[in-house]
Design goal:
Number of domains: 2
Bound molecules: beta-D-fructofuranose
Largest sheet: 6 strands, antiparallel
CATH superfamily of the largest domain: Glycosyl hydrolase domain, family 43
CATH class of the largest domain: Mainly Beta
CATH architecture of the largest domain: 5 Propeller
Shape: globular
Distance between the termini: 37 Å
């Protein structure tokens, strides 16, 4: 049965969502049907389609009591909205249906697992909401919350772990047909840990072990965990809050990381061997993966950063999901590349080879705000070059810059001049692998965002900007002499 609260959200989004024109949204990235979006949720393949749910507050462009928005796609790029799937309509989730995940049950039903947040005020007047894990089953369109909810509550976790920060279940099926689930939780030392639960039927859960802990080393609370095998390694992915910058690997605030290691499933022991940021840009958080029917492990994140969420009074939507990206391991690192489905949306192609660059130059046909462009840069002489700079979303007053400095092997993105009038972080730098001054940059623009894949996915660098769409120029410039190849495709999302 659809509750009055869910019905209200569905009517609201249908009515007000219709006022948002397609041209005012990203063309091939999911944005909320109306209002606010944060984390991607329930990312999965179910009955012939990809489903992507999201943390959703339809009634404003600010975070509020969390619902789950819902969309489906056959190619991970062109999304069709379905009615909102969950509303905070039960006593155990009256303060919000927080992040979670989904899978198909053997009987064909679709199972959603999410964090129910119950509003709670302690005697001292401090609000300390209670977080539990809850289930809903459905048919890909409508979902019923289980009468047995919550299925994992405070009595199911070890002593010293906090029921006030216990969230974001990621559910998966094991090879033997049983189920596992990882959940983020805060421990006695105030920092995060990832708890593993197991179940024979996906309905009755029991605590198994603490897979890994933060020990106040990588941020504080660890949110939105995911746990999967990739090319023979085991990856624990999580989003730490309150990070203190670590070199150029992790910046202050909310970060994301891959913990790479080995896993002994019989002993339930995860042996962490390496740590790596998921994305090195300004706007990326709370990623989640799915396993595609063809075996690809695909990740998508919230293309935003909590500390820089600013919407104007006129805005009708806020928040986007990144391009889904294929994950692989190369040379001991996780590598990301846009899903191959993107090639099917390629429109007009423009390409140039061996173009000498020094003074700022533009190339005929190389412009646009919905494009997939690969630029390879190399030094033109043995003296090398000091830096190479590309401007995108450029107009007479605006641009976003991408600069490579071979001497320090750093890539720097800046949206300082993108038209922002906010004084928050607009610049990010990361290390890339130097190959004698050569670098390959694949830049994907979708109206209000840029995703840069460096050297075939060794780094992903994501940022959003609010530059007027008329600023669609692209230019190249170098201090010292470079030579570039450019291949650019327009993306035609209504193909
Ligand atoms: C991450 C997060 C999750 C939580 C959700 C609430 O961005 O804080 O931990 O479930 O957002 O909207």
């Amino acid at each position: 049965m659809t509750s009055a609260l869910l019905q209200k959200a569905r009517e609201y989004e249908e009515h007000y969502g219709a006022y948002i024109s397609d041209a005012a949204r990203p063309a091939f990235h999911l944005s909320p049907r109306v209002g606010w979006m944060n984390d991607p949720n329930g990312f999965c393949f179910y009955k012939g389609q990809y489903h992507l749910f999201y943390q959703y507050h339809p009634y404003s462009t600010k975070w509020g009591p969390m619902h789950w928005g819902h969309a489906v796609s056959r190619d991970l790029l062109r999304w069709e909205y379905l009615p909102a799937a969950l509303a905070p309509d039960e006593a155990y989730d009256d303060a919000g249906c927080f992040s979670g995940s989904a899978l198909e049950l053997p009987d064909g039903r679709h199972l959603l697992m999410y964090t129910g947040v119950r509003s709670h005020m302690d005697e001292d007047g401090v609000r300390r909401d209670l977080q539990t894990q809850c289930l809903a089953v459905g048919d890909g369109l409508n979902y019923e919350k289980l009468p047995s909810n919550p299925v994992i509550a405070g009595d199911g976790i070890p002593e010293g772990f906090s029921v006030h920060d216990f969230r974001d279940p990621k559910i998966f099926r094991n090879a033997d047909g049983s189920y596992g689930c990882v959940v983020g939780c805060r421990t006695q030392d105030g920092s995060g840990a990832i708890l593993l639960f197991e179940s024979k039927n996906a309905f009755d859960w029991r605590f198994v072990t603490v897979l890994d802990r933060c020990w106040n080393e990588y941020g504080r609370m660890w949110e939105c965990p995911d746990f999967f095998e990739l090319d023979g390694k085991q990856i624990l992915m999580t989003s730490p809050q309150d990070m203190s910058a670590v070199g150029l690997e992790f910046h202050n605030g909310d970060c994301t990381m891959f913990l790479l290691g080995d896993y002994d499933p019989a002993a339930h022991v995860f042996d962490r061997q390496a740590v790596q940021a998921v994305d090195y840009g300004l706007d990326f958080y709370a990623p989640q993966t799915l396993l595609a029917p063809d075996g690809r492990r695909i990740v998508a994140g919230w293309m935003q950063n909590w500390d820089t969420c600013v919407s104007g009074p006129e805005d009708k939507w806020f928040g986007q999901v990144t391009l889904p990206r294929e994950l692989t391991i190369r040379d001991g690192r996780v590598v990301q590349n846009p899903v191959r489905e993107l090639a099917a949306l390629h429109g007009r192609r423009v390409s140039y080879s061996d173009i000498p660059v020094q003074e700022e130059l533009t190339l005929r046909g190389v412009y646009g705000r919905t494009i997939d462009m690969t630029v390879t840069v190399r030094p033109r002489s043995e003296c090398g070059y000091t830096n190479f700079r590309m401007k995108v979303a450029a107009g007479s007053q605006h641009y976003t810059s991408i600069t490579y400095t071979p001497l320090t092997s750093t890539l720097r993105v800046s949206r300082d001049h993108s038209g922002t009038n906010r004084d928050f972080v607009h610049v990010r730098e990361c290390f890339v692998r130097d190959r004698g001054g050569e670098i390959k940059l694949r830049v994907i623009l979708d109206r209000f965002s840029a995703e840069i894949f460096v050297n075939d996915g060794e780094q992903a660098v994501t940022l959003t900007f609010h530059t007027p769409l008329s600023a669609d120029g692209i230019s190249f410039q170098s201090q010292g002499k470079t030579v570039i190849n450019v291949e650019k495709y327009d993306i035609v999302a209504d193909k």
